[in-house]
Amino acid sequence: MSIRALVQGVFAVLLAALPCGAQSAAAPAKAPVSTGVRSDQGQLLKASETFVRELFAWGPNVKVKLGPLSPSSAADFYMVPIEVTLNNRTESGNVFVSKDGKTLLRGEIYDMSADPFAANRAKIRINGNPSRGPANARVTLVEFSDFECPHCRELYEALKTIEAQYPQVRIVHKDFPLNNIHPWAETAAIGAHCAFEQSPAAFWKVHDSIFEDQDLISAENAWEKIVGYAVGAGLNAETFKACLASPGAKKAVAADHAEGVALGIDSTPTVYINGRPLVGGDTATLEQYIDYELAAHPK
């Protein structure tokens, strides 16, 4: 259970811009923090904490940490990290506080003179990851996935339709195992990576087998199952086992995970269509985003 559930959605309201919340950011809300100008940043943070505690009725049992202040895309506002902890569960995100101490915004602020998804694209490494579709595709769909995640399995099924419907789209797989809740996800990710190292084509056979048999895999049998999928895909068993035990393969999976963290990902699946994020991979929304990008980038 997430801390949002513990506080009955209050965090979801405040931290609406987080990737693990609603699929679209909430519209910014404005409220006065105080009257008068505050030049002292410590005082500004203190006033901001007092305000959000009052706004959401957060008593002493809720730990609230704000700061440090940093510049935002709006010159008159600071971006303020906020971390909220209840019953040893923590959520974090950002709010924006005006430099004069009069206004607090939740949601996101965008620079209308810039591409809002350019920063995401700059953080995503495409080459060196398993992919299907043309290398020069006008639209690239990057999926951060966890092999043990039921919702990732649903997206796996949906992407079969997407791939058939949009053969001109490149689909890129990245690993984001949620090790704290999925005990065999990392083993599966390492195994899939080892399949890719031996044969990029075999990767997809192993990938598909893991998702198809997701309900049959456990932490106890994951190694044996994944070796079986690799052999079934035509890979050399001994080479595959050596890779599965190697620190290099684990490091490659960790690199994907670190990339996802840098993008702000904390739930799976999370998909990027030409850098445009979508949490959960709803099929209708995927189609909407792909259609838009195809129209926006004609041949």
DSSP helix fraction? 40-55%
What is the count of helical runs? 11
N- to C-terminal distance: 46 Å
The low-confidence runs, each spanning 5 or more residues with pLDDT under 50, are: 1-11, 13-38
Strand content: 15-25%
H/E element sequence: HHEHEEEEEHEEHEHHHHHEEH
Q: What oligomeric state is this? A: single chain
Overall, the morphology is globular
**Main sheet properties:** 6 strands, antiparallel
CA gyration radius, whole angstroms: 22 Å
Structural class: alpha+beta
Mean model confidence by pLDDT: 87
Number of E-state strands: 11
Topology:
Elements: H1 3-6, H2 10-14, E1 29-32, H3 41-56, E2 63-66, E3 70-71, E4 77-86, E5 89-98, E6 103-106, H4 118-123, E7 131-132, E8 139-145, H5 150-165, E9 169-175, H6 185-198, H7 200-212, H8 222-232, H9 237-244, H10 247-263, E10 270-273, E11 276-279, H11 283-296
Parallel strand pairs: 8-9
Antiparallel strand pairs: 1-6, 2-4, 3-4, 4-5, 5-6, 7-9, 8-10, 10-11
Explain how this protein is built:
With 299 residues, the chain is an alpha+beta fold. It is 41% helix and 19% strand. The chain contains 11 helices and 11 strands. It has helices at residues 3-6, 10-14, 41-56, 118-123, 150-165, 185-198, 200-212, 222-232, 237-244, 247-263, 283-296; strands at residues 29-32, 63-66, 70-71, 77-86, 89-98, 103-106, 131-132, 139-145, 169-175, 270-273, 276-279. Strands 1, 2, 3, 4, 5 and 6 form a 6-stranded antiparallel beta sheet that branches. A 5-stranded mixed beta sheet has the order 7-9-8-10-11. A hairpin with a 4-residue loop joins β5 (89-98) and β6 (103-106). α6 crosses α10 (247-263) and α7 (200-212) packs across α8 (222-232). The longest helix is centred in the C-terminal third of the chain and has 17 residues, at 247-263. The chain is globular and about 65 Å long.
